[in-house]
Amino acid sequence: MKHPINILEQFWGHTKFRPLQEDIINSVLEGHDTFALLPTGGGKSVCFQIPALIKEGICIVISPLVALMKDQVNALKDKNIKAIALTSGISYQDIDTLLDNCIYGNYKFLYLSPERLQQELVQDRIKQMNVNLIAVDEAHCISQWGNDFRPAYKNINNLRELLPSVNIIALTASATPEVVKDTIKELDFIDARLFKQSFARSNIAYMSFDTEDKYYRIENILNKNRASSIIYVRNRKLTVEISNYLESKGFSSTFYHGGISADKKTDHLHEWLSNEKQVMVATNAFGMGIDKPDVKTVIHFSLPESIENYFQEAGRAGRNSEKAYAIILKNKSDEQLLKGQFLQVLPSVDFVKKLYRKLSNYFQISYGEGEFTVHDFNFNDFCKTYQFNTLVAYNAFQILDRTSIISLSKQFNKRSSVQFIVSNEQVFNYLRTHKKFDIIIKSILRTYGGIFDQEISVKLNLIATKASTKSDTVVNILKQLEKDNIISLKLYQTDAQVTFLQPREDDKTINRIANIIEQQNDLKRKQINDVLTFVNTNHLCKSVQLLSYFGEINIQDCEVCSVCIHQKQGKNKTDIKKTIKRIVLLLKLKPLSSRQLSKELDLEEKIVTTALKIMIENNTVDITKINTYKLKHI
Known about the structure:
Elements: H1 4-12, H2 21-29, E1 34-37, H3 44-54, E2 58-62, H4 66-78, E3 83-86, H5 92-104, E4 109-112, H6 120-128, E5 131-136, H7 157-162, E6 168-172, H8 177-186, E7 193-196, E8 204-210, H9 214-224, E9 229-232, H10 236-248, E10 253-256, H11 262-273, E11 279-282, E12 297-300, H12 307-314, E13 324-330, H13 334-342, H14 349-362, E14 374-377, H15 379-386, H16 390-402, E15 406-420, H17 424-433, H18 438-447, E16 456-459, H19 460-466, H20 471-483, E17 487-500, H21 507-511, H22 514-536, H23 542-549, H24 562-572, H25 576-587, H26 594-601, H27 605-617, E18 621-623, E19 629-631
Parallel strand pairs: 1-6, 1-7, 2-4, 2-5, 3-4, 5-6, 8-13, 9-11, 9-12, 10-11, 12-13
Antiparallel strand pairs: 14-17, 15-16, 15-17, 18-19
Helix pairs in contact: 2-3, 5-6, 13-22, 14-16, 19-20, 25-27, 26-27
């Protein structure tokens, strides 16, 4: 048996483990049920991948995230390690073949969603595999008290029955003591070995600032730290607006959200990862599985929806162990916005029943039918058709997805139907003056017979692959062909795919999850309250607040968060008399705004405005027409 350090060096090129990794690996190799609680960036995947490579057989990895599965499988393949992921959209025949490969093809990893474990075919083939380990990623999803609870995770117990002698490793980056206890119980651990690394990130300064002008504050932050940054926002529109604003101010910026095409996601991510762009402005769709060590600053333009989410997103800063910043910007309206976005739009059981019935009608699914049918889905069109509030509807879809009533695949698809409306000879005459269209037009003609005679549905990704180009390029050329009266074109856009995982039974289907809906709504209310408590508590170290939330005790103040710094300023800088004297010295030179004074004095703006208020009351300064301050009698 190879030593773990040899495997680490052979495949990962490292000569030493991160904290707790080797202890966790040894626990797994000794056959113990093991719980690994490592913060974001702690190297969780290595903890199951190395034992699986050392032992004979295949490791089954349960994960709820298709993107993360694909990322890990691709990373393993890059290391010449054989791995398979059974994601959605794979035909029964292909699943059959892939599972045979796992039995006979010397594969080391099989990645599955928890929903796949319900399939009889999958269970039968797993019985025939030489399984050496079961790895449960994002293990907190099995607990009803955990962030992103997914009832389908309870299907993992099927593996316990199929493979009673195989040990399990559960891994997560964020779990409260209650969630850890519940997860160990749900996974039926015997003599569980718990490894919990402190969540303390001494190199990250957690900051929370009140500011009425967030754009101005972002400029200041990015100017002070001209290094790789992420700005998290609440909606897609803001990603584009803020990115464009930063570009106009001389920063290099790009954006990322769930509504842009796969090609654009790849391009924007590459620009940021390669440091062609300093700033990535993104929704929380961005970040999972991305390990960029040199991120200096993570800014939350919008308040996060839970402490767990915030800790993971903030933890993407400073993975190179250098000083980094996690900053929340807030103002008076943010609390109501947060409640409006998450509490006032929680779907009731009755609403979920109504939406599920309408969804079935939308796709013309008959009662008792629809199981495993897949449908392209335009969310906005659906909400408009039935006059649903989009936020309430979105939350209802999330519930249906997490409870395995449906599978909602968020993506941006373009599908088209095309017919050539000129003769074959006219097409080739057109190509003589439009040579750059040649490969794409020929790819279409060779793929779709009868396209001169009738309207044909075409797959843009297939055309793009055959033409060795991007689907966006194909779309642009099709639009030009339509403009030039070469083709008739119908271009449809969808932002999701819906797979029905259960036959339609209307209220009966939803009644089975009614208790879960109500419990999850209560949990969401608690999470929002915890976030507001965190951002509004300004007398207790931010790091201490976070670590206490995750059950750590005997914690020392970090000395670098916004609370600790403010307390230092209280001792060293905020003596109003001293501040006024410093302001007078600056204003003797020229009139300045409160922002300019704040910057020059390296003090929070509210401290400066307090001093200026006293100076106005004492008739020491005047306010000019352009809102700067000048000394009287100077």
